[in-house]
Automatic annotation (TrEMBL), chains A, B:
Gene name of this polypeptide: cinA
Protein name, entry field: CinA-like protein
Family matches, as SUPFAM superfamilies: CinA-like (SSF142433), Molybdenum cofactor biosynthesis proteins (SSF53218)
Family named by the database record: Belongs to the CinA family.
Domain MoaB/Mog: 14-181
InterPro entries: CinA, CinA-like_C, CinA_C, CinA_KH, Competence-induced_CinA, MoaB/Mog-like_dom_sf, MoaB/Mog_dom
CDD domains xrefs: cinA (cd00885)
Pfam family, one: MoCF_biosynth
Organism domain of life: Bacteria
Length: 430, 430
């Protein structure tokens, strides 16, 4: 078969995500992002991602293309019990193998189903069909086994598309397999390293300016910036051609931290709500929220963190003016004079929720999420954030956000949590 | 160059999304989902999606693969002002064209930047480089122009990766271009049609059983099922080989509706919160929420809908027991006797929030989102939903959800909104 000569093919990978819903069904492939990270840690660079529907010929075409340019091909999806699921058949045909029911695949599936008090039905029995010469990849979480085989010098791995199952199998079987193969290979590149830093409150151009000249060009480390409604993400990524030592990368990371200062709110996979929760829990502080335009998003985010009941006492979603008065004691005259979207009302909301809940700190948001509700002086995107702490600290911030309703809500929630984070950083243990 | 013979190549498409952040940066390619829909409406089937990094050789490889199997290739990304952005160069090299600054591309960019009071910098001038023989695709939203050209019988279109710009250019230039090409072609398949139905409350196997035998095999219409934390999605999709008439598809859709009954909560792009909002607004009903384990997610979802202030008065996030008592009047003895996670407390929360807010209906959720908080009799995933309407209607439902904390919150919010939907459906105009 044709093969494109690629200088680094031995350490490159491709993912193939299978499923018509990924083509036209409005669902994104999230598995490949997880795989990219796991492979990168092994020094294997994910260079291509492909997505195909539940079509045997198209899957076969994708496999042929992939093995011609990558040494590791990880397929996800198409291993289910229905006739639509044709990854098994496609791999068998393209690699010239026979499909047969494999005892160990069947045993594993039966053992798992037995835990749920069930036995395999006809469709599930199809899931025990494995191409000859392939090794079974056990599924510790679900019923569908995977498999792997080598063909024309490439390793082809087939895993289920359900993220929880895919991730478990990647970790328990595929990573050890690839690690052992990597160790067998002579020389070769180092593991890739990737450090991620999350900032909030600075435009992308300002983050760029702060980091200018930080990374020496000869180090072959990529400095990446990526803007989203939740801020600008900064990444330092080595590639297999990088020749930096771990200490060098640590020095670069320190440089990023020093230059970004308090604009840097988290690193790696940590989220804003996790950082806020960690700071509040450590200092034994408690919080209550008063949300108008965010409608509960701040509470939702805070409660995404396990254990958040230790510091979140309550939240109030005061969408109507009457609710602001009844639940938070905001004087009707204040709303009348300044409008519900004003620094004065934000301050009164934060004060009201803190006092009534008896917590360390109250945080509030009022704004115009749009698309309606704007006035000549108050445009869509105008948002006031308030913070009130028992020690007399009263802060209000005015923001003018751009974007659609959902984006404005996201940004407003991020601004409120960031204000809480900065306050908690300064606050002595309660 | 090699070309795979494909029976339908003339009506198939491939997307190539370009950007290293899409490979390893944790960002999914959402543009291709939008493109798939636009192409489907033209009768052009998106069969493959590829994702590559900001690497000229890899982009070139992806273009070569794509034109060998698709007649329409839509590239997104890599048209920015930095040296990382190499889509222009890759297309020029692979198709053997010369890159030169194009006056009309420059004029459009200057006109747009002038609106913002700016003029093109050096990087932006690179964005006016267009392969010879290609047509410029104007960007009505941002500064980066796109282009299109034909090569070896395929149309190659290059658009920016920013979704707002990509979508505007797709609609204003690419769809008209492809429509005119389609009309020029002899015969050819019909536009694809796709109908989507959203269900909640039935396991996938039960949805499958209800729909068994609905679609005649000879019609060549795909019946798809897709489970997610928000329920099971049902789709009817024609393909270019389908020979059903619009009336036949309407008959199938009626069959789906009849068989799914009230389990069907929405169709197409409509969300549960939009359906609930529409029903409440139409009947002039008002609602207040009392959330414990969902932490504000129900309020957040309801307020994602523009105009929701017409029916959402307030919400209470009562994470602590004290908040349940103070904000909702739940008797401490009730919590003591039955536990905070109980049908009795859910009912008291719904009653309390409805009465205090003076709204038509109160909805409540209390449960154990995990991973901690379980007891021998109350496992993670145990959730009680309550509804109280002024007319004496009192409903509580017990659910036992599986999944992680985020999934349990999602499912609990969906169950609460669905209960509200079913109640509003039965309720006469207020």
């Amino acid at each position: 078969m044709p093969r494109r000569a690629h200088p680094d093919r031995s350490f490159t990978a491709e993912t193939i995500a299978i499923g018509s819903e990924l083509l036209i069904g409005g669902r994104s492939d999230s598995n490949s992002l997880h795989i990219a990270e796991a492979l990168g840690a092994l020094g294997i660079e994910l260079r291509f991602k492909s997505i195909v529907g539940d079509d045997r010929a198209d899957i076969m075409a994708a496999v042929k293309t992939a093995v011609a340019r990558a040494a590791v091909v990880i397929m996800t999806g198409g291993l289910g019990p229905t006739v639509d699921d044709c990854t098994r058949e496609a791999v068998a045909v393209v690699t010239g193998r026979r499909l047969a029911r494999r005892k160990e695949a069947l045993d594993g599936m039966q053992a798992r189903l037995a835990q749920w008090g069930r036995s395999p039905n006809k469709g599930q029995l199809r899931q025990a069909l494995i191409p000859s010469g392939a090794a079974v990849v056990p599924n510790p979480v679900g019923s569908a086994p995977g498999f792997w085989l080598t063909w024309t010098g490439a390793i082809i791995v087939a895993l289920p598309g359900v993220p929880r199952e895919m991730e478990a199998m990647l970790e328990s079987s595929v990573v050890p397999l690839l690690r052992s193969r990597r160790q067998g290979a002579a020389g070769g590149p180092r593991p890739m390293a990737r450090l991620v830093f999350h900032t909030w409150g600075l435009p992308e151009a300002d983050v760029d300016a702060k980091l200018a000249g930080l990374v020496p060009a000869r180090w072959n480390v990529d400095l990446g910036l990526l803007a989203s409604p939740l801020g600008v993400l900064v990444s330092l990524t080595t590639n297999p051609r990088s020749r930096v030592l771990p200490d060098d990368l640590a020095t670069l990371a320190d440089g990023v931290r020093a230059r970004l200062g308090e604009w840097l709110y988290a690193e790696g996979r940590e989220t804003m709500e996790e950082v806020v929760g960690r700071l509040l829990a450590k200092r034994q502080l408690t919080v209550a929220t008063a949300e108008s335009c965010t409608g509960g998003l701040i509470g939702h985010r805070l409660t995404q963190v396990p254990g958040s009941s230790a510091y979140l006492d309550r939240g109030v979603i005061c969408y109507s003016n009457r609710a602001k008065t009844e639940l938070l004691g905001v004087p009707p005259a204040l709303i009348e004079t300044h409008g519900a979207v004003s620094a004065e009302v934000a301050a009164a909301m934060a004060d009201g929720v803190r006092t009534r809940a008896g917590v360390s700190v109250g945080v509030s948001v009022t704004g115009i999420a749009g698309p309606g509700g704007a006035t000549p002086t108050k445009p869509v995107g105008l948002v006031y954030i308030g913070l009130n702490a028992g020690d007399g600290t009263i802060i209000t911030h005015e923001h003018r956000f751009h974007g659609d309703r959902s984006t404005i809500k996201q940004r407003a929630s991020q601004a409120a949590l960031d204000l809480l984070r900065r306050w908690a950083l300064r606050r002595e243990a309660g």
